């Protein structure tokens, strides 16, 4: 009998280059996604870039298309209702 946990482990995870440095390998330990490893274990979902204010997870494809925002935050951003530096909602 083979260990089922190793099979699940190899099926679920893939290592991907962290999108925060987009190939520049300049992430630091404070990087939310890779914590300085420059790669992260992909499960197919990433947390909205406004993770201080928003805990939505979006599919990776969407995450990349929307520049790291979930759909509602992306809409706010393009309506200029989000501060581009702090990512806080502008009252
Ligand atoms: Zn990173
Ligand atoms: Zn969001």
- What percent strand? 15-25%
**Helix/sheet category:** alpha+beta
From the spread of the alpha carbons, the general shape counts as: globular
Number of domains: 2
Number of helices: 3
Count all strands and give the number. Answer: 4
Order of helices and strands: HEEEEHH
Primary descriptors:
91 residues, alpha+beta, two-stranded antiparallel sheet, 3 helices, binds zinc ion
Description:
It is a single chain. The chain folds into two domains: 1-43, no CATH class; 44-83, no CATH class. It starts with a helix and ends in a 13-residue tail after the last helix. The protein has helices at 4-12, 60-65, 71-78, and strands at 14-17, 39-42, 45-47, 57-59. The radius of gyration is 16 Å and the shape is globular. The strands form two sheets. A two-stranded antiparallel ribbon has the order 1-2. The chain has 91 residues and is of the alpha+beta class. 25% of the residues lie in helices and 15% in strands. It contains three helices and four strands; from the N terminus they run αββββαα. One zinc ion binds at residues 48, 50, 54, 56, 69-70, 72-73.
Q: How do the strands and helices of this protein lay out in sequence?
A:
Blueprint (H helix, E strand, L loop, with lengths): L3 H9 L1 E4 L21 E4 L2 E3 L9 E3 H6 L5 H8 L13
The structure holds zinc ion (ZN) (2 copies).
């Amino acid at each position: 009998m083979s260990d089922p946990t190793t099979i699940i482990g190899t099926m679920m995870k893939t290592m991907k280059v962290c999108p925060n440095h987009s190939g520049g390998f300049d992430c630091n330990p404070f990087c939310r996604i890779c914590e300085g490893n420059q790669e992260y274990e992909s499960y197919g979902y990433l947390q909205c870039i406004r993770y201080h204010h928003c805990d939505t997870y979006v599919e990776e494809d969407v995450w990349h298309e929307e520049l790291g925002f979930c759909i509602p935050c992306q809409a706010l951003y393009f309506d200029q209702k989000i501060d581009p530096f702090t990512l806080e909602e502008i009252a």
